[in-house]
Fold:
Amino acid sequence: MLLLAGCSDAGNSGAGKVENTTPVFNEASVHDPSVIRAEDGTYYVFGSHLAAAKSTDLMSWELVASGAADGNPLIPNVTEELRETFEWAQTDTLWAADVIQLADGKYYMYYNACRGDSPLSAMGVAVAADIEGPYKDLGIILKSGMWGEPSEDGEIYDATIHPNVVDPDVFFDKDGKLWMVYGSYSGGIFILEMDEKTGKPLPGQGYGKKLLGGNHSRIEGPYMLYSPDTDYYYLFLSYGGLDAAGGYNIRVARSKNPDGPFVDAEGKDMIEAKADPSLPLFDDRSVEPFGTKLMGNHLWKDPADEGREGGYVSPGHNSAYYDEESGSYYLIFHSRFPYSGEKHEIRVHQFFLNEEGWPVVVPFQYAGETLRKVDKDAAAGEYELVNHGKDISAELKESAAIRLEKDGTVAGAVSGEWELTGEAGLHLTVDGMAYDGYLLRSWDETAEVWTETFTVLSEDGTALWGARR
Structure:
């Protein structure tokens, strides 16, 4: 069992203490949050519309900036500073930003703007001595959407083949080499080698190397995270549409190399994930089988019928963070919520790597929970089960009642067997399919209680969440 990120009480002296406290959350709205940790230990997220927020504990967030308008502290004169970008993209706002600190100690913000109803986009980089700005523009580094004209690679721009130059994530690989993964819809997700000194792409690459997507498949928001525990690069992606009716969902693939090839839990090569050009635009059915789906629309039902329903609508455009000191992994994303329209907020969920080295995400938002030894009798009981499936759909996946019986069987909405492994591991066999993950106590914010939960992933890449409600 690959047991990571706080495996026992011995490694987490505060593990029992946290469950005697009520966590304090302060929510903020930053769409497409990309995380970076500053030198003083503060976490920052940067996102669309020149928005940013910060937190010291990943639970309480303070808005730093918002709105692509003059007076924003990140780029105080943004309308003039980024005039060329706005003019090219024919828009007055910015999309998902990403910030990284390079060897010179300065912070580099990768900004991008897109018309929205076409891939007419520009991406550039700005630099600041302080993470909260002000950032000074260094210029545009990529353009897209030049219909019928030569593109960045010299060929006539074709939106089914060439990328929409948005959603950048700039990262260092394990050897200290700088890369940028980016892209959305249109021609797919691409990766470029970057200059560690200038923060710009190395010359002669055009748009770089394609990793997946194409033919306007609804795949976007790439984010790369290297795990020293497994020696894999995990490429997180968002499928579907970002609005409340779009069915946004978070997926992942992995590779031993930052530029691929990437595969999902079933071993499918992600380069094959693309829409069928003979079908109508935004053909989701062709790409649904690709990528390990970690989370999508879901609704926790309340067996007591006391109004404690909760869940997410269109969670996505995530970033991820690995804490070297604690060995912990975090998924940072935005989400909408059931029956709440387009309201969205930052959410952080801890995740672990299961026996096969795939992420399994804690069902509820991070509240300081840790893995620790679990007693079988205490684990047995009534649970609500969410099956995230593999589809791209606006449907809310409603939880269903199951029981983990003390004799090791599973009853209720599904049938099967369960067993604890190691200190916190959980093996489930449900309707003939094997699942692997962990059982731990988490904070159920809607019910306002610490409760037993589990998170497991099947051999074919289907995620199940369980919570005692």
Observations:
- The longest strand covers residues 310-323.
- The CA atoms of residues 379 and 452 lie 7 Å apart.
